[in-house]
Amino acid sequence: xRVIIADDDILLRESIASLLERSGFAVVAQVSDATQLxxxxxxxxxxxxxxxIRMPPTHTTEGLDxxxxxxxxxPQVNVLVLSAYVELTHATDLLTSGxxxxxxxxxxxxxxxxxxxxxxxxxxxxxxxDPALVQELVTAHRRDDRLTELTSREKEVLALMxxxxxxxxxxxxxxxxxxxxxxxxxxxxxxxxxxxxxDDHRRVLAVIAFLEAR
Length: 214
Hints:
54% of the residues lie in helices and 13% in strands. The chain is an alpha/beta fold.
């Protein structure tokens, strides 16, 4: 699994690289700004790009902008945004661009193995979205009556769906049966007026696309 890491914090960048190499990934490039990221992605065509949002020169959305450009030019390259910030507008644009997209907050990465597992899922075409981002999306669009119809349990299931979890994975996390999860998913999709599908990736994209819509 070939990976490029983009972050202007050299200590964090080196730490992630060391962790990935111990976990069997091949770090083919480490870069500190968006220009280097775009050049390295074009030259290496990695399986996965891990990028921060705010990088030189303006420390605004360079990382996200580069990620979106990479996805347009090289849709086979999967992208994980690893940031200290929630950036709703640009993030949802990226998340609805196709499979193999993730968005995690640095402060919420507390389990190394779970982080590595998430990288594998994204690198293999699944989606992974931090629950904090999902909550921000829900809050930003709470005026939509359909969202208010969801029960507390359905909101928990929705957040785990957006993380890219399968029904079995959601059942394990919430300590409920897989059949119960399936009922919750059907209810969520019905309440949000979204078509049912057995494809986890499409299910996640449909939910996020709905949350993005105003």
